[in-house]
Amino acid sequence: MASERYELNMNMKCVKYMIFVISITFAVVAAMLLSMAVAIGNLFDDFQNFIDSHFFVPPNLLIAIGVILLVIALFGCVGALKESTAMINVYGVLLLIVFVLQLAAAIAAFVMRGQVEMMVRQKIFDSMADYKQVEGYRNPIDMLQNTLECCGVDGYNDWAQFLPSDGIVMEYPETCCAAPPIDGECIPRDYGCYARLSWLISQGSVLIATGTVAVAFVQVLGAVCAFMLASAIRRAKTLRATRRWHLQQSLGIMTKTIDPQYTGMEKSDANVDPDKYLPTSPSVN
């Protein structure tokens, strides 16, 4: 019994500290995921005119997951230190729920990565087509070309479809120029915007997908440890309750009033029962 109790207590301590360490690790990882999601979300915001709205779902979902993981990590630390079965079980269930959310975010990011090429190409072409007609479109395309140091979709020749040319000298937006124009002459940049922007969006989607998957499988380990700790806590509490009950039963027997007729070693004359001895009976010696 003693060895079993010692082994149970040691196992429970090991699992408890493991849960505590995993929760602290989750808090650190959640902070990293949160910062990564915010950075990718800000990157997408900078180029929101060239990105469909559903591409913002994975980074926003990852931000929500990071916040939830921080709360769950705190919940797990408190539950492990207090040895609360209910809190530990809730901790494990929450980890599994967040695991499902992370898989959904990862799948969405992988699926959207395949849509980047067509979306980016079409969006840039649409902005270039409206460059002269709609004043509001100048800022997005100029910002894109200036930020990524690019020109056109695949190259500067794409602007020939949208800006006038006299057959000898072609007009470019000023943001296409590799250097400030001299006497109105612009030397366009060699790189198109499509390759650079699609690479940025694809890499952001890959980071979201791989980051969430990596953390998700660690969460499964945390959930398993949580359920193991809850089981160990239940066994320990059951064992303590059993020991307490046995102790109460033992104390009850020891403090029970004993019939004085059985405390003597000799038989008394006043004793009608020949098998009973009273304290007043003479000694056999």
Automatic annotation (TrEMBL):
The lineage of its organism: Eukaryota, Metazoa, Ecdysozoa, Arthropoda, Hexapoda. The keyword Transferase does not apply. Belongs to the tetraspanin (TM4SF) family. One of its GO terms (cellular component) is plasma membrane. It comes from Anopheles culicifacies. Residues 264-285 are annotated as: Disordered. It is found in: Membrane. This is Tetraspanin. The chain crosses the membrane at residues 20-41, 61-81, 88-112, 206-230. Pfam families: Tetraspanin.
